# Entry
Amino acid sequence: MREADLDVFASELAKGAFAIDVREPDEYAAGHVPGVRPAPLSELGAHLAALPADRPVYVICASGNRSAWAAAHLEAAGFHAVSVAGGTSGWVRTGRPVVRGTDARAA
# Structure
């Protein structure tokens, strides 16, 4: 399982990277990185069919713990997964934008 810091993640997102947020729905709605799709850890298996197999899947959570776990499991399932170090909390601390509410583009 690979890990990306917030600067790399931001750069990859700007280029159209595919990313999922594995926090629970209430956490996601409270504030998430723009363009990141919800895929709660508790339902991750149900989202596998929507994940691309031909490019990296960036995985973010609040701090990096759940995303590391999810990325390792996605790697074991054959995906190229990258955990985002620092998570959404780090994203907010660095002054980057967040979106509140839900996003219809669920993974």
